[in-house]
Write a structure and sequence with these properties.
Helix content is 54%, strand content 11%. It has a 6-stranded mixed sheet with strand order 5-2-6-7-8-9. Strands 1-10 form a two-stranded antiparallel sheet. A two-stranded antiparallel ribbon has the order 3-4. Helix 11 packs parallel to helix 13. The longest helix is centred in the last third of the chain and has 22 residues. The protein is globular. The model has no long low-confidence stretch (mean pLDDT 94). The chain contains 17 helices and 10 strands. It is α+β, with helices and mostly antiparallel strands. Strand 8 and strand 9 form a beta hairpin.
């Protein structure tokens, strides 16, 4: 059967937005820019300067950089410049070695790695400038985490790509809750089975998070609580602790990729793990799990479209909303229950702030997952936050736009205050 034209685009959106990422994507963006600049330089950089937007600085300050045992944009840029592979995009640091890390630390100790706040209106922006001897090269990334828009060498542009369209533009945006539901439930299994790779990658990192002490040990602590009789080993606890454990490992800088969503590994984890946990415990087939994952990831992308890549709102709430919708499919619910789940989420934790990427993100993932499961279970019982409450609206697409408006125009000043607090501690 020939796939519908709009469904072909849905698959393209998934292939673009659901991709493997090694490490938190904000420091990885700095590393990617530095790696591509170093490649253009054609020599080992002796000096590295990375200029970043406020939002990227916020999300790159406190998160572990894979393979380094350190946090910060400076080490990310240094190892990216000295040993990153720009062709790997969000897995740019995959092949770094202890020797490269040691060399990067020497470069930093000599005051040759600088991180600056860029003068830009872009929410997601990184420009790496590297130099050696008499030569200089640069790479600029904007709007998407791997969106290289310009590469220069000695002030000559050698690569130029137009900026991606603004994230929150509704021009030609095909996704809607109804359209996503139709695709997830009716598309041929062979056309959507690729999404199971997200389950493989993210379940793997979740298991590692339960095996070792990473970050705040949120997921592993939940396991210990079960053994002590402080928590039950029910399906909600199972989904929550797996998602938290995956975030624990990722935010601590584990040298292992996750499947991201909309440029965020934590969002990829949160859109995936609760769905797979429910599918495993409910004994669902691979096809049923794939359809639920498609539902989850596309709903997450749809919500993120109205919010933008980086904002003052925590992206985990969007991805958890997606996973709640995927869980609805596994529970036998339909479009009405999906819409109720979204409204319930918008009516509960819609205001959770993003104060940077860090180990405590695992706590936010856990809270978001628990709220999503409660929202889905209430939806299955016919309960929904009414459109008269708060920013919720009876029209589901208006409801989603209201959330996006809150997180963009509504929280601009919040974003500035969060960054000011963080950089002035």
């Amino acid at each position: 059967m020939t796939m519908k034209k709009e469904w072909v685009e849905f698959v393209a959106i998934l292939n673009r937005e659901v991709v493997p990422a090694l490490g938190c994507t904000e420091p990885v963006t700095a590393a990617l820019a530095a790696a591509r600049a170093a490649e253009a330089l054609g020599a080992k950089p002796e000096h590295v300067c990375v200029q970043v937007s406020g939002n990227l600085l916020k999300n790159g300050m406190g998160v572990g950089v894979p393979g380094t045992g350190m946090t910060g944009l400076d080490i990310a840029a240094a190892v990216g410049a000295l040993g990153g592979d720009a062709t790997l995009k969000l897995e740019v640091l995959r092949d770094i070695t202890p020797e490269i890390v040691a060399e990067a630390k020497v470069l930093m100790a000599g005051g040759n790695v600088v991180v600056e706040l860029a003068d830009t209106d872009e929410l997601l922006f990184a420009k790496a400038i590297v130099s050696a001897s008499e030569h200089t090269a640069s790479c600029t990334i904007a709007r998407t985490h791997a969106g290289i828009v310009e590469v220069t060498k000695d002030d000559t542009v050698i690569e130029s790509t137009p900026l991606a369209a603004e994230e929150t533009s509704d021009d030609s945006w095909l996704l809607s809750v109804a359209a996503i539901y139709e695709f997830a439930t009716e598309a041929a299994y062979d056309d959507i089975s690729f999404i199971l790779e997200a389950a493989r990658l993210n379940e793997s990192i979740a298991s590692k998070g339960l095996e070792k002490d990473f970050g705040l040990r949120v997921g592993r602590s939940m396991d210990e609580d079960i053994a002590l009789g402080l928590r039950s080993d029910d399906i909600t606890s199972f989904a929550t602790r797996l998602a938290a454990a995956a975030s624990d490992a990722r935010m601590d800088g584990i040298m292992q990729p996750v499947m991201s969503n909309s440029g965020s590994g934590n969002q990829g984890i949160t859109a995936t793990i609760p769905v797979t946990a429910f599918a495993r415990r409910l004994g669902k087939s691979e096809e049923e799990m794939a359809r639920a994952l498609i539902m989850s990831h596309l709903i997450s992308i749809h919500l993120k479209h109205h919010l933008g890549r980086l904002s003052a709102l925590c992206g985990a709430i969007l991805a958890a909303t997606g996973s709640g919708c995927g869980i609805i499919l596994l529970l036998g619910g339909g479009l009405l229950e999906v819409e109720r789940t979204i409204k319930n989420m918008v009516g509960t934790i819609a205001g959770m702030i993003c104060d940077g990427a860090k180990t405590s993100c695992a706590l936010k993932v856990a809270s978001s997952v628990e709220a999503a499961i409660s929202s889905a279970l209430l939806a299955m019982k016919g309960t929904s936050v009414p459109g008269s409450d708060g920013i919720v609206d009876d029209n589901i697409e208006v409801c989603i736009k209201n959330l996006g408006r809150l997180g963009t125009a509504g929280m601009c000043e919040t974003d500035k205050i969060i960054l000011d607090i963080m950089v002035n501690k």
